[in-house]
Design goal:
Low-confidence stretches of chain A: none
Mean pLDDT of chain A: 92
Radius of gyration of chain A: 18 Å
Strand order of the largest sheet of chain A: 1-2
Structural class of chain A: mainly alpha
Largest interface: A-B, 33 and 42 residues
Order of helices and strands of chain A: HHHEEHH
Oligomer: homotetramer
Number of helices of chain A: 5
Shape of chain A: elongated
Distance between the termini of chain A: 18 Å
Strand content of chain A: 5-15%
Helix content of chain A: 55-70%
DNA sequence: GTGGTCTAGACCACC
DNA sequence: GTGGTCTAGACCACG
């Protein structure tokens, strides 16, 4: 499981860790029952403070994505994949709502917003297909 | 110039003020050279902290949308409209593109994304109309 | 709202804070909409680290007992009382289950456990009534 | 001497081992002077870490339930039965009293507490019987 | 003033 | 080795 952190992008580091672990679970990069890197190991590889990793893992526990085997570390919980897939969608939906609210508040007309959206969607899909073919 | 604030929508209040002033300029609600409400007046109208208005006005100065006339308060600067119109569209459009890319990357189908978008748009417009009627 | 902490009783300090805030809400010591002490203030009165209070408040947010008014502090959320009352009962029920499991595992007969339980219950109720009359 | 371990019930594994050894002594499953399984043997039987067994045996030595015979392993000490019988009841009874006091203080009715207790007791006994049959 | 995040370093229980 | 808790002190965004 490879995790990449950008400490300057506004999103809290612990939140970035949470998202990437969930993404890895949703994409079957790690399977239920498999261990995830220990707090100290993850902290070392990301060059961040163990407490920050601890906080990310705490949230993943609350979200029932991972569970603790006492004294032996943490593993992906059995229902994790389902949770991660659905949470990912709800997160994206929330983001869409936020952006749309901003657009409306800033005075754009519905048709104008819709046009920007459709343009973004078609170009994003083209790029997505292209990168699919590469891999 | 009518400004509506939602203290619970996650967007900082000062940022909401900035956006709506820019919106008013872009829509010719206020014209270059015309004064904008004083910090105190705006704060009283919106029932928010004067510091918050101060901060919004500071950012508007940095963005060259308003300027201080010594002893006479603040007015919309001459180049303001051009700045506001272009910045509004580019900012919102960029945000939309970012979100759409995330949605596609997270594996959502185009129809699914479009559905979330339309739902967000209609609910956002309803709330916008409702707050218009209140005022 | 008075909170008492015992740093040596095994229960984490942040957990003690969580419980006592919930207890205060359940007992109407603080009402929905009312503010709770700020992180710094609570930390000072309890003579503990602000981070520890922060963690307690974070959990209370997750449990939807309190909510943040940006820049102005935290208040008891509207549905808090219901949550606190029911959570209190479920916590006690869990504790009972744990103890009973231990008793069974340690080889006590059902009748023996039941006898100890009834004895404890009647003496606890007597003491409870007595303290009620005092107040 | 049969020992059953549940690694997921919150009680430390070494503590579970301690309790069950004491239980076996109290119930005359093993008699004073008789040897108890070696650390390695016990660890293999329970599929747990030898360090964990070591820790349990260390505590049993501190509690004067077992003693080391140089070169011949560990045996149940002479006063063990008396210690185990009395400690078992007093520990469990104390725990029950504590929990019941908490329940009463938290405002639960006597009948409510009794109901939770009986439910816990019957489910705990069922699980206990089930694990007996397995072995 | 408020809460939110992060770092550094310590101590503990458990396996 | 593992995770869990706590302290101390710093910086940031927001009102």
């Amino acid at each position: 499981m490879q995790v990449m952190i950008d400490p300057d992008n506004g999103v809290p580091i612990y939140e970035q860790v949470v998202r990437q672990v969930k993404y890895a679970v949703a994409e079957n990069v790690v399977l239920p029952g498999q261990p995830i890197p220990s707090v100290r190991e993850m902290a070392k590889t990301l060059a961040i403070n163990p407490n920050t990793v601890q906080r990310a893992y705490l949230q993943l526990q609350n979200d029932q994505v991972i569970e603790v085997l006492r004294g032996r570390g943490m593993v992906v919980s059995s229902g994790a994949k389902k949770i991660c897939v659905s949470s990912r969608k709800s997160v994206v939906t929330n983001r869409i709502e936020t952006v749309v609210v901003e657009a409306v508040q800033s005075g754009m007309e519905a048709e104008e917003i819709r046009h920007a959206f459709e343009a973004a969607l078609s170009s994003a899909r083209q790029r997505d297909k292209a990168s699919d073919q590469e891999s």
